[in-house]
Structure prediction request, 177 residues.
Amino acid sequence: MTGDRDDLLEEALAIHRDVARLVLAHAAPTWLELDLTMPQMKTFVVVAKEGPVTIGHVSEHLGVGPATASHLVDRLVRSGLVERREDALDRRRALVMVSPQGAELAERLRGERDRMREWLSRMDEEDVAALTRGMRALRDVLQREANASRDSRLPCEMAGSSYAHKVSSRTGEETRD
Prediction:
């Protein structure tokens, strides 16, 4: 790499850090009032985005067992963010949906997107176009890496292996079950 490219990469990383800090500073009041664990937040996002859903759907989407999904939903019910109701078409199933309080929270969290849109609208069209090109290029690199990672696991999965390839979210190390 040339010195100029290294300098650009370092500047891009520094700007990314600054932008992330500034965005977080604006969003912090909404996020800090939440009393949810990360698994509960993920469960809430699934229900808010895709609801009404079954516990099985939550389980599958989060990659956890049905008992864990049910426990996470129960915690959200107790916090008033979701409701669990009997499925009118199949009384053996329960459907999980966002409660009115949860809908209000989801709307406030979506408001952060509206705030970002407002900030972007204050930029010159040329700068928005350049930012869009850069973000698209970054997304494409990340997507190719995600696809390559997924493809590298396919032979093991297609062969019907008794263990699954995983990467620990805590350490980043590969594990096998």
Notes: The radius of gyration is 21 Å. DSSP finds six helices and five strands in the chain. The first helix runs from residue 3 to 32.
